[in-house]
Amino acid sequence: MKPKYTSPQQFFRQRRTRMGIVFAILLAIYLGSVFLVKFQTFSSLAQVPAGLIWLFKTFIPNQHTTTYLGPIFYQLWRTLIVSISSTICAAILSLMFAVLGAKTTSPNRGFQLTVRFGASLLRNIPVVAWAMILLFSFKQSDFTGFLALFFMTLGYLTRAFTETMEDLDAEKLQALQAVGANYFQCVFCGVLPEAASTMTSWVLYMIENNIRDATLVGLLTGTGIGFLFSQYFKSIRYDAAGLIVLLIAVLVIVLELTSTQIRRAIA
Amino acid sequence: MLKVNQLDKTYGQDKHSLKSVSFTAQPGEVTAIIGPSGAGKTTILRSVNQLIRDDGGQILLDDQDIRQANKAELRKIRHHIGMIFQNYNLISPLTALENVLHGRLGAKSTLAGMFGLYSTAEKTEALALLAEVGLKDYAYQRCDQLSGGQQQRVGIARALMQHPKMILCDEPIASLDPKSTKIVMDILRKLAREKKLIILINLHQIDIAMSYADHIIGINDGAIVFEGPTAQVNDAVLQKIYRQATEQKAKVAANEA
Q1: B240 near B208, Cβ under 8 Å?
Q2: Numbered residues of chain B with Cβ closer than 8 Å to any chain A Cβ
Q3: Complex ipTM tops 0.90
């Protein structure tokens, strides 16, 4: 059905009314929830500056903190390695699953459904839950952290790779079929080169993401930078804990910048 | 020689796409299929190399029925039928040279094809073919950095790499400017003349068909309404080919008013 408007003025008036209604609904939801939880917007906001000042005073590293740098860098390095290795291992497996599961390349519908279901199962279990479940079987070790990140990444990347392959122009693959290429040749000479740069971006993104998650996982598995953070935190060495937070942020930013450079180079 | 006999294709329940289509295309000639949009031009072309599975009939290329071939035979037959497309359909992050070499995939073992293990002779031939279509200096360029006309010429080189008996061209110039159109059509005509190839080409530009084709097949609503040498095509014939399209347009216009 074609929408009918008598004049442009009427069209824009209707659009403004619609935007107004959406805004009013959002405001009503906010006010309703404020009332329900008895949240006091203004007095809460007033506490924020004081809280931040306390945070800065206690967590700012001082000249004494540098003595902790050795163990911090060591654990940061281990965390980085676990994140990268779990992402790479998951990426290799995801690539195989994605080829089997993507509509464009899947041998049959059974594979499609299995891959889709498996990936969404792995992805929808939070990484913290993975770590806790795996703790029972693998105890407190780097390997438990590795596996937790691996399973979640496997789910994410399989989904991302599958969608990348399904977004490819099916006609290009038809062109290879027309040449006389068989299934494996179509996948290797057509699908993979076309999807490579997007898939690399996904892998880089997951590495960044896994550094952040590894910190959290480390708290539970008793390894890596996350565990060191909780140790310092619990023993009231706040300056050292603050230094860790700072260094994690620096590491993630450096990784982001590097991966932007890599992405630009391969695009 | 390509001989198509009583080819049928039905999409869905009762929408006939091709109704008993028969025609021949000779080596050394440019054969153009013309007709209104949705008449079935693409369906015919893609049935010839079985990218679309038809419902009945015969497709004889040098007396071998393509429709009877099994998977391995079909791969061999396809290896000798080149195809170029409106959207070029090259693998865009790869270089022109790699795309031309893809023309050898039908003749290579699975593994050699997968990992791009081409012989020196194959690489030399691919470079020579790029030179033949005027792209000698672009061999190592990524295909997404080439213009439309250049990409289409890479497509032609890929088809030639197959040592084809026939090249199918699905609206090869629909996205090209007049200058590139002339270059591409000149190459196709030269290939028909010099290499004695069957050039079967879908066109919706009547003027191009009239000036380049030797043989014209007019199709309307899935059925052939004209087949003959280009010289026989006159206004009456064209009206017959595009008849229903004008009638339908009139009907749609009447409905909208």
Answers
A1: no
A2: 49, 51, 75-79, 81-83, 85, 87, 89-94, 102-103, 105-108, 110, 113-116, 158, 162, 168
A3: no
Amino acid at A34: V
Q: What is the pLDDT of residues B82-99, one digit of tens each?
A: 999 999 999 999 999 999
Could you give the dihedral angle defined by the CA atoms of residues B173, B179, B182 and B188, in that order, rounded to the nearest 10 degrees? -60
Which chain B residues are Cβ-neighbours of A170 within 8 angstroms?
A: none
A234 and A142 in a single domain? The answer is yes
On whether residue A144 sits in a domain, the answer given is yes
Query: Domain count of chain A?
Result: 2
The minimal CB distance from B51 to the residues A169, A174, A181 is found for: A174
Residue B257 has pLDDT above 60, yes or no: no
Which of A64-73, B29-38, B76-85 shows the lowest mean pLDDT across its residues?
A: A64-73
pLDDT for residue A8: 87
Q: Do A71 and A169 fall within a single domain?
A: yes
User: Kind of pairing, strands B215-220 and B30-34?
Assistant: parallel
Q: Which domain holds residue A72?
A: 65-266
CB contact under 8 A, A179 and B76: no
Q: What is the pTM of this model?
A: 0.83
Closest CA to B223 of B65, B12, B33: B33
Sequence-ordered alpha helix ranges (H) in A139-223:
142-167, 170-179, 183-186, 192-221
